[in-house]
Amino acid sequence: MRILGPIVIAGLLVGVVPAEAGQFNAESFTLANGLQVVVVPSHRTPAIAQMVWYKAGAADEAPGKSGIAHFVEHLMFRGSKAMPPGAFSRTIAENGGRDNAFTTEDYTAYYQTVASDRLELVMRLEAERMHDLLITEEQVKTEREVIIEERRTRIDNVPGSLLAEQIDAVLFLNSHYRLPTIGWQHEMRGLGADDARSFYQTWYAPNNAVVVISGDVTVERVRELAEKYYGPVPAKPVPEHPALTEPPKVASTRLEMTSPRAANPYWSRSYLAPTFIEQAGRPADVATVLAELLGGGETSRLYKRLVLDKKLATSVGADYSGERNAGSFSIYAEPREGVDIGALEVAVAAEVAVLLRDGASADEVARVKRRLQEGAIYDRDSLMAPARIIGASLASGRTLAEVEAWPDRIGTVTPEEILKLARDVITDSTAVTAVLLPEKRS
Amino acid sequence: MRAGARRYTLVAAAFLFVLLLRALPAAAVTVTPVKSAGGVEAWLVEDHSLPLIAIKFAFGNGAGLDPPGKEGLAYFTTGLLDEGAGDLDSEAYKARLEDLSIRLSFNADVDATSGSMRMLAANADAAFDLLHLALTRPRFDADAIERVRAELVSELQDAAQDPGTIGSRIFWRTAFPGQPYGRRTRGTQATVAKIDAADMRRFVAEHFGRDRLKIGVVGDVTPEKLRELLDRTFGDLPARSAPDIIPETAAVDAGAYFLVKVPVPQSVVIFGERGLKRDDPDWYAALLLNEILGGSGLNSRLSAAVRDKRGLAYSVYSDLYAMRHAGMIVGRVATRNDRVGEAIDVIRAEWQRMGEEGPSEAELAAAKSYSIGSFASGFDSTEKLAALLVSLQVENLGIDYMTRRAELLQSVTIEDVRRVARRVLDAHKLRVVVVGDPPTLLGAHEVPPDGG
After folding, report:
1. Which of B30, B117, B314, B315 to mutate against chain A (most A CBs within 10 Å)?
2. CATH topology agreement for domains A7-230 and A253-438
3. I need a labelling partner for B282 at 20 to 30 A (CA). Which of A83, A279, B23, B156 fits?
């Protein structure tokens, strides 16, 4: 693919689509090779954040290869044809920048923050490793030990994380969300250079990526540099994501884990919930309001009843988490010292039952919605947050227009929608209830 | 996610020097000193690009002045400040904060008691009034105290099972035996049980004085409006706070090697020794030295040796701890039980080599470049910038510090860094605490975990 000259670029600028005024006032364009580029101009500090999102995560791994998406993320720092191992981050640091990356079920993201006059450098570096990563046996051998240590740090040393892994494994019956993103340790041990190359070559392509640049830049400048550096990266056929969706659950499950490393008991109940992307995200928006109303902050229904009134819990909350092919809704609580975990469970269920019976008042819903909408203003108060929110949505299959309209859409969620979704989702006959108990040692 | 995965290579050095010739931009921020009619002073960065305001403030005393036997008082008290004030009980106060999307938090560390608040500019009057209530008329209702006590006890119990916290507690207690910096900021279950509302009222009365109060404000507010808000919020606080009676001190100047047996698959190791205070003339050299040895930005020596070369850990780092009356350099690594001895040997060897030889010219140039260039993007939100404004005042660095900082770092010479390396780094004086289940650990003295 040839690099487009400046004159052609000027002509293409006509094609830039300004999104309607929304949360971030971002603008977006797509290169000929299919790479989507989003720009969020903000001139508060002379710095930029670049985030490169690949629509490839743990959910795209082959059976038996859990952890390979995250392993590739690590290997992206271990050398390309243009850069010796480690030189990527070193170059960014020498230029006063910071960089890192993360992997989730549905996508993998790489990011840098640098002074705005170093934009060209970070775009060139990311464009290079978009297509010329070099994976050697030597690098794989050492880095595999590093990711296993990472697993020990994040999961194996932390009883609550071990239990969360077990919850996902029984909540999701069919989709890859059953498996930990970091991988099961016995499968991580078997991951090799060929597995990493195969995953990288299958999924890393401009037509399967989104670049978001936030900060002190103009769309024109980003366009020019994107054409220069990302433009020549060849597009290639990328497979469809595995469409593993969840069947109806018909049974409830109880998990109990006793650990000598757990200090306090912990209780949670999880339900399958709508995906992040269905119906342009409407059910996800309703679930977000429901979670906030039930368990967000220290004025929520659960906090008032369980922590303030009944004094049964030290903390309580609710959470909705939506992915491309599935979602989950969970309620959790930690009992106050001496409180029986069974009594806590009964009390939580009773409070939830009140909501399922009566729903929420218009006034209560309005207060929660306004808090969420005003929270969206805080999301603009950093370089990274806009890039993170936009990138995560686009990489999951949502549109920029949907992201921009989020505060407005939240404003239209009705008490009737909340009640209907709550009754659909919160069904204890198909829930996964989990209890973590300290092992009393003599 | 990766943490501090950086690899040093000479291969890239030649190419990088070309880039370094280009000037790095200075922080484009204007700090305005503001003084209210009532004499309350603050540093302000006006930014009207978003309808938000952030304020951060710190009083000059913290947990270091907790009375003996009531360790945890400062921290426990800050947990009650947003639990009701004036005519508003806890529930009413929190409903007001949440309905106005005001984000208010308080904290206490060993040297300071601080607060942080963010609000929509339209709600500034109401927000500052709520803050004023919290600082001047906190209720300390009995049910709120018992609820927060239960949360704090639960937090202490969790911490007592966390390998990193177990290691840190022993590290600091044995480095500063019987001294404020060796005590626990959050107390123990026994000390927290003894603290009551009278203690908290006394704490507020003694320590929330205006004399050593430092305030930073960033966002959508004019100096005129801020002056008014400052007087309304802080104007009727007592003029003076209790004197800081923590003596100048230093950690035990001898090595130690402890093992706490805990059944976890990965050992956590805390290691360190005496460092420098913030006002030490060698501070900037020490900052660059630490960046090269165990900082998070570059591929540090420790990370290259432990992670990249041997795959022994996901994360290894060192940090400078500059308290008001003592300085430390402390690091941390987590590694598989059967190789923890090897990891410690590697760290000791790198520590000693750096102490004897110091860094190379190329390493120093890279560290300067990173430390100078990354400064501004570390303060990309109103909240982070407000916190910086407070620390600049606490450390007495001057209102023009942000324009001078690059030069302060540039002027550090390789001889400066080598001198500081010799002065600070001595592997024989490392205090090493291992928490985990290693099969053997030659030379380590086994100790039980501290009580909860």
Report:
1. B314
2. yes
3. B23
Judged by CB atoms closer than 8 Å, whether chains meet at B377 and A113 is answered as: yes
CA distance B140 to B142: 6
Name the B residues in 28-47 with CB < 8 Å from any A CB. Answer: 28-29, 47
* Cα B126 to Cα A368, B80, B99, B223, B232, distances in angstroms: 19, 20, 11, 18, 11
Q: Can you identify the CATH homologous superfamily of domain A7-230?
A: Metalloenzyme, LuxS/M16 peptidase-like (3.30.830.10)
**CA separation, residue A242 to residues A61, A172, A324, B117, B164 (Å):** 9, 15, 11, 45, 40
pLDDT tens, residue by residue, B276-325: 999 999 999 999 999 999 998 778 999 999 999 999 999 999 999 999 99
Shortest CA distance to A259 belongs to which of A437, A74, A442? A437
Task: Give the gap in angstroms from C-alpha A44 to the nearest C-alpha of chain B.
Answer: 7
| Token pair of A9 as six digits | 């670029």
Token representation of residue B313: 């850990």
Q: Which residues of chain A have pLDDT under 50?
A: 1-20, 442
> A20, A27, A61, A73: which one is catalytic?
A73
How would you classify the pairing of strands A27-30 and A36-41? antiparallel
Which residue spans within B94-226 are E strands per DSSP? Answer: 103-108, 113-120, 214-219
ipTM: 0.92
Domain layout of chain A by residue ranges:
7-230, 253-438
Contact B376 A93 (CB under 8 A): no
For A336, the closest of B5, B150, B373 (CB atoms) is: B150
Here the tokens at position B160 are 């007592």
**Is B101–A374 a contact, with Cβ atoms under 8 angstroms apart?**
yes
CATH fold of A253-438: Cytochrome Bc1 Complex; Chain A, domain 1 (3.30.830)
* pLDDT per residue as tens digits for the range B404-443: 999 999 999 999 999 999 999 999 999 999 999 999 999 9
> Which uninterrupted H or E stretch holds A313?
strand A313-322
Cα separation, B179 vs B172, whole angstroms: 10
Restricting to B residues 61-100, those with a Cβ less than 8 Å away from any Cβ of A are 90-91, 94-95, 98-99
Residue B335's SS3 state is strand
